[in-house]
Amino acid sequence: MSLTFQDASARVDAYISQFKEGYFPPLLMLARLTEEVGEIARVIAHENGKTPKPGEDAGDLEMELADLMFVMLCMANERGLNLERGFERMMSKIERRDADRWTRKDTEGQDA
Ligand SMILES: [Mg+2]
To answer: Considering its fold, how many domains does the chain have in total?
Structure first.
């Protein structure tokens, strides 16, 4: 399966557009985003020694990250932002800014 940012954005918009309520207002959307970050934290806590409460499952990190992505796509769509362009801008920024920040892996057959 290959899914572009544009595909994901369009699919979210098609889903949301079926309903009269439409996208949540900005502060509610921010609350939803924060909620999903908390759910990611809970899964990671469970993976690192926190015992789930009775009746609580350990969670599913892949699903929680996807939940966060859904909210991010909703925020971008509601504001007419293009996450693909944003991603490209962000990657260009860190590729330039952090080009010498980290220790590079040795390249096979070459000295590091
Ligand atoms: Mg979730």
So the answer is: 1
